[in-house]
Amino acid sequence: MLEIRGLAIRSPSRDIVTELALHLPGQGITALIGPSGCGKSSVLKWLAGILPQGLDAQGAAMLDGEPISPPHPAIIYQPQNDALFPWLTIAENAALGLRVAGLSARTAHERVAPLFAAFGLSGTEKQFPAELSGGMRQRAAFLRTMVQPGRFLLVDEPFSALDAVTRLRMQDWLVARLAEHPRGVLLVTHDLHEATSLADRILVMGMRPGRVIADIAVPIRRPARTETALAGLRDTLKQLLLQETLS
Ligand SMILES: Nc1ncnc2c1ncn2[C@@H]1O[C@H](COP(=O)(O)OP(=O)(O)OP(=O)(O)O)[C@@H](O)[C@H]1O
Questions:
Q1: Do residues 74 and 150 touch, judged by C-beta distance below 8 A?
Q2: 42 CB less than 6 Å from ligand 1?
Q3: Looking at the domain that runs over 1-74+152-166+184-247, which CATH code has it been given?
Q4: Does the ipTM surpass 0.90?
């Protein structure tokens, strides 16, 4: 279990997040939703140990009940932008996390190469990020995230640049992969369909200052998550978000 306790994040001009607490089980997907600017990305960056200069934070991160000081090898982070290195090929970018973790170039390549087809990236191995579409770059970044061995994945809108069909394909791939190799995923998304169809639990953040205002288990098992079955939950989430943006 990964936990945040009493997190406060401040900029020089204001409180961005106050008294934020959340826990992330070692299995399943927890979605983090909230109005734009409420601090979702800042929370992930803090937990990944890369809060930008200009923001100041206080709070505790706990892994299995023990305090940790991010960054931590159990925590893998995928930022909102694809953050691919322009001077590396797509294959090198995809293998980068494994290289940083100490694998040889050859072993890292052997791990990522079989996944290029599943990610719709066949033939892009020797290309550079600038030669790919935004959606392809986002898939390459997601591939880089998914091959890393950390127990917890923090992913910030990983499917936002994908067309509808590719998005569904990647979501299915994620669910299948987690069923084979359970890990804890914290998924930031603006898409209520994505949150309700993928997540086991949904955390709603309010704003000014950012804090968790609702922690909602999704009680419907995945095969039964039809549009009709999820409509009520989506409506509840929509109302919560509307209240926050209007208040
Ligand atoms: N480096 C920084 N310096 C000062 N303020 C910052 C910095 N980074 C973010 N902020 C401010 O912190 C607030 C929260 O930003 P953050 O990106 O965490 O929100 P978010 O909920 O992820 O937004 P979105 O959904 O639009 O991605 C915003 O008001 C933003 O302007």
A1: yes
A2: yes
A3: 3.40.50.300
A4: yes
